[in-house]
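User: Show me a protein chain along with its predicted structure.
Assistant: Here is one chain, sequence first, then structure tokens.
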Amino acid sequence: MTTIPQRLNALRERMQQAGISACIVPGTDPHNSEYMAAHWAEMQWISGFQGETGTAVITLTEALLWTDSRYYLQAEQELQGTTVRLMRESDIDCPTIAQWLRDNVQGTVAVNAEMYTVNAYRQLKESFGTLQLTACDLIRPIWTDNRPDIPMNPLYIYDDQYAGESVESKLARVRQVLKDENAQALLIAALDEIGWLLNIRGTDVDFTPCVIAYVVVENDRCTLFVDSRKVNTEDAAALQRKGVSLLPYEAIYDYLCHLSADTVLMDGNRVNEALYEAVTGSTVRLLTPCPVQRMMSVKNETEIQGERLAMIEDGVALTRFFRWLDRWQEERDSEETELTLAARLHDYRAQGRHFTDDSFCTIAGWNANGAIVHYHAEEGKCAKIEGDGVLLLDSGGQYLDGTTDITRTVWIGDEKQISDQLRHDYTLVMKGHIALARSRFPKGTRGNQLDILAHQYMWQEGITYGHGTGHGVGHFMGCHEGPANIRTDNNTNPIRLGNIFSDEPGIYRTGEYGIRTENLILTVKAGSQNITSPVYRPMSDRTTGEEYYEFETLTLCFYDTRLLDLTMLTADEKAWLNAYHRCVFDTLAPHLDKEDRDFLKEKCKEL
């Protein structure tokens, strides 16, 4: 096995042969995936840094790694002895990659075009000034020792009873878009879009039930580019009956080169530059977001009902876990860490009938670690749960019915040790959380127009949080989904009926604790009476003719009301909390045994 310096020397030899002055190796894959297969971990391989986010830059004399503050300590440790220098990109005085290259390099900079989306490639090129950017894969020829294969796990057909719409219907909708756009083909590279469109799922990617593949939809055909070893005879025949032809995964480039289409559509934020450049005989029009992404974000009634069922399974698991945690904090009869708590929660979820996997790596942050927004506990380095304190637990599950994502902040230990400051902060978070959940707004509203509802109480005290308030959530698919979201950024995509978002404001006191409260909320018509709506409010008789939306809260889990300062809550906020807790208890109680039911009843008691 080669060392990092040996790998860097091999890369520099290739660079010299090709007349390349610098090579950029990002931590991405050809599908712009949130979680990627180890086969494409090129940044990690060339630098030695194993974090999820980072970009390596190698010149003929230097090697550098850019990553953010979440990974500084890890990077410092893992880069020792590699000759790779850490660039702390979160620091105000750290130059961008383009700035550093302009100041330190002359000539040509190479990137693997498969690892950059069309738009990202263009932005990089525009930022280079006099530097030349070329597409060249320099890693593949030198990574020959033990490079992991592309996963060959079999795909499976996702039954229409869960999907709620047939492949034929979805393809018809896409072809209508082609007609409307006067185009003849749509290229799809994003794995979640492919899984949704063709009602297929797989286990190629951690936490997301995706299949590594590409798809081209044309007026008269749909082609799935996937390794034949991943598709058994029965599933291949089923796809053929639905109008889906199969070709090898690597055949996508030749297919695009010879495509008989005047105009090809693709999403510049989700299709890579190599695929874009492969289209030589057609006009390419970038359409962002991809129409499939927009379609899949609007959940149909079957998907919505599935999400409600998944929330019940998830709520039962969470109730059982928190009851165990409640007993443990009294007895302390085992040594528990952030990692063991995450594992125990996984085990409770795994008892669910339709559970398949976690929907992301659980964040369990004890006391000061909870203040690290994207904290990731590691074996041997994580905190022990000891003494009194705050546990921030952000977790989720993948169920055949749907996808869950929930954060709860709970107190462990002597309640007399809960400080007034902690109660104040927790209540500020809850007030913002409730305000967004209770909001009512006209059709066409964008997420950034609602974001202030969650921030307002904190901003009045000079407090904020650096992450988004709400991300879209897929249906038995990615825990993070576009195109709309709820955050301060000006996302032009409006909130649509059937969109599911997270609602997760937070406060983070460095060195002390983190607080975040998160539910998933579904966009519905205002005035709807839904089974998990905490408070039903009829629409006014006076109407302007506009259509109004609101949110139905889907998540089913109690809040730790011991952390509330009740004097800070309005009567409406208390009513919402009481109604929510009644809904949680009434929905979950039939699925619990007596001990769990009694525990939940106590946690859901009226304020």
